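User: Here's a chain of 263 residues. Predict its fold as tokens.
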Amino acid sequence: MTDSHTFAQSSGARPSKFVGLSNYFALLATKDFQHSLINLIMYTVVFLLGTLLVGFLWAWLLDKPIAGEPIFRSTFLFPMAVSFVASGVVWRWLLNSAQGDRATGLNRLFQIVGLGFLQNSWSSNITFGILAIALPAIWQLSGYVMALFLAGFRGVSDDLREAARVDGASEWQIYKSIIFPQLTPVALSAVVIIGHMSLKSFDLIMNITDQRTYSTKVPAIDMFNFMTDGDYSNSAAVGTILLVIIAILVVPYLIHDTRSRGK
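Assistant: Prediction complete.
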């Protein structure tokens, strides 16, 4: 079968038929897919804000030359070199929901240090399970955001900083009025890159939980499940919805970047 399933109804080997946009309306009306979209929004917001905050703070600390900076920089960047599959396996153990005498991972650590009240079900939590998945994602990509911001910090001319000091500006005023405004393009690039990565998250979530785990379902997981079940029309519909969401995020940035280069 060579025709597209995006606007067709098909299951298994049955011939497809054109159904227009009904696949999308039916999919968006289901509670399961709405839950996946809500999870995706929560995951994206926490992942994005977490990586921006942690990455920016690391870059700010490393902006001033310190002893052993290459070691710190390499340490912060190291998680990015680990595949999401490998880190997912490790974080699956760290986020184990077992508590009490059977506790492992973070729950066991909290128990040992006397903070047992912090133990929770992590990714098994129906309401906030997806937020636990954002923790390893933040850990893995913060170093990359740090590298972007650090390059932005180092791109500000030392002569400009010195001229501001001669005019009597404090270090905070230099950062606030000169350096931070020049980091806007870097921040925008980080938002687009991290944002589109979060929207298509799949392997990290699959390796920490399971493809059928309701609490951590996102559209990419739904697309895989539909494909596994032979429901190619809904699988194609989910893929198209993700493409549209990513395009809404990326296309305005590309237009803005193109116009900026043309000036």
